[in-house]
Amino acid sequence: MARNELRPVVRLRSTAGTGFTYVTRKNRRNDPDRMTLRKYDPVAGRHVDFREER
């Protein structure tokens, strides 16, 4: 399997509606569904859920 197929680059968008995004890689074997991570949103000034967008 090629590197890009196993660990694709994904964008995580803030659920607070600020439009802030993080860019990361994910392992498709461990997380086949959309990822949700709780990270800091500097625009909102607090930790919020970030969901994977496609």
From TrEMBL:
Q: Which residues form a coiled coil?
A: none
Gene3D superfamilies associated with the record: Ribosomal protein L33
Q: Which UniProt keywords apply?
A: Ribonucleoprotein, Ribosomal protein
Cite the InterPro entries for this sequence. Ribosomal_bL33, Ribosomal_bL33_CS, Ribosomal_bL33_sf, Ribosomal_zn-bd
Concerning Pfam families, the annotation shows: Ribosomal_L33 (PF00471)
Please report the name of this protein according to its UniProt entry. Large ribosomal subunit protein bL33
Matching HAMAP family, A to Z?
Answer: Ribosomal_bL33
Protein species of origin: Streptomyces griseoruber
Q: Name one GO biological process term.
A: translation
* NCBIfam families linked: PRK00595.1, rpmG_bact
Q: Which family does it belong to?
A: Belongs to the bacterial ribosomal protein bL33 family.
Give the GO molecular function terms. Answer: structural constituent of ribosome
Sorted alphabetically, the Gene Ontology cellular component annotations on this record are:
cytosolic large ribosomal subunit
Q: Which residues cross the membrane?
A: none
Asked if the Swiss-Prot or TrEMBL record annotates the protein with the keyword Ribosomal protein, the reply is: yes
